[in-house]
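Good day; I would like, with your permission, to put a structural problem before you. A protein sequence and the structure tokens that stand for its backbone fold form the material at issue. I would ask you to consider whether the tokens describe a fold that such a sequence might reasonably adopt. I set the record out below, with my sincere thanks for your time.
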Amino acid sequence: MISKISQAILVLLGWKYHADTIKQEKYVLIGAPHTSNWDFPLTLLILSALGIKFSWVAKHTLFVGPVGLFFKKIGGIPVNRTKRTGFMLKMVRAFQKNDHLILAISPEGTRKKTDHWKTGFYHLAIKAGVDIRLGYIDYSSRTGGLGPTLQPSGDTERDFEIIEEFYKVKSGKHLG
């Protein structure tokens, strides 16, 4: 039911959604480009339309009061990036413990234009022994969804070239 409602809302908004495949049960889902507060609600709609249940990571300051409780209820996981909290180890254990875990992370770590990505998502996938799925929102085509899956090789430079190649034709809401 929620999937059909999300599909209808996306159609009304003029957005299309797509996934190469959906079968995989565990992976780190990177979402890019992330340039606007609108990316999050669009991501919720797109993944819901595709019937995908996922968890997501955001800065801990968003998880305050009733909004914070709501965010946790819909899969949010707060992370405090200003101090070491053992977050990586907690997430590795969560992947080991659960048969189904799709963990969405924005590799830019911000909504501002950046010239580099944080690599935590990559190291998490390697340590947890899971693939990386390339999620996207492309404002130029008004399309979002799931692209290919990358099995991290450990050769960070080579793997990032593959990732960059996929995202170079995707446009965020704010370009600069």
About this structure: Residues 89 and 124 are 8 Å apart (CA to CA). The first helix runs from residue 2 to 13. The mean pLDDT is 87. The beta strands are 16-19, 26-32, 55-59, 76-79, 101-105, 131-138, 143-150.
